[in-house]
Write a structure and sequence with these properties.
The chain is mostly beta strands and about 70 residues long. It has one domain. The chain contains no helices and 5 strands. The strands form 2 sheets. A 3-stranded antiparallel beta sheet has the order 1-2-5, with no helix packed on it. Strands 3-4 form a two-stranded antiparallel sheet. A hairpin with a 5-residue loop joins β3 and β4. About 10% of the residues are buried. Bound molecules: FE2/S2 (inorganic) cluster. FE2/S2 (inorganic) cluster binds next to loops. This is Iron-binding zinc finger CDGSH type. InterPro entries: FeS-contain_CDGSH-typ, MitoNEET_CISD. Keywords: 2Fe-2S, Iron, Iron-sulfur, Metal-binding. One of its GO terms (cellular component) is cytoplasm. One of its GO terms (molecular function) is 2 iron, 2 sulfur cluster binding.
């Protein structure tokens, strides 16, 4: 059995009303099948579907009425 490393934080965080945060290196496949390799320590993925930079969060979720924000 291999040892599972423990980290002081989760690698994936769902922000209530906002993006999905990914920590570490990942490859994201967007809705058109294009692959995007992450280059930052933390990456925010849009969950509200209103970002102008999808698949990335651009902060637009902060402008939406509460009923349109992701849960
Ligand atoms: S979650 Fe931030 S713009 Fe969509």
């Amino acid at each position: 059995m291999t040892d599972v490393p423990t980290y002081p934080h989760a690698d994936v965080v769902l922000c209530p009303g906002g993006p999905l945060l990914l920590r570490g290196k990942h490859v994201i496949e967007d809705s058109s099948g294009e692959l995007h390799e992450t280059t930052r320590r933390v990456t925010a993925l849009c969950r509200c579907d209103k970002s102008a930079k999808k698949p990335w969060c651009d902060g637009t979720h902060k402008l939406l009425p509460e009923k349109l924000t992701p849960s």
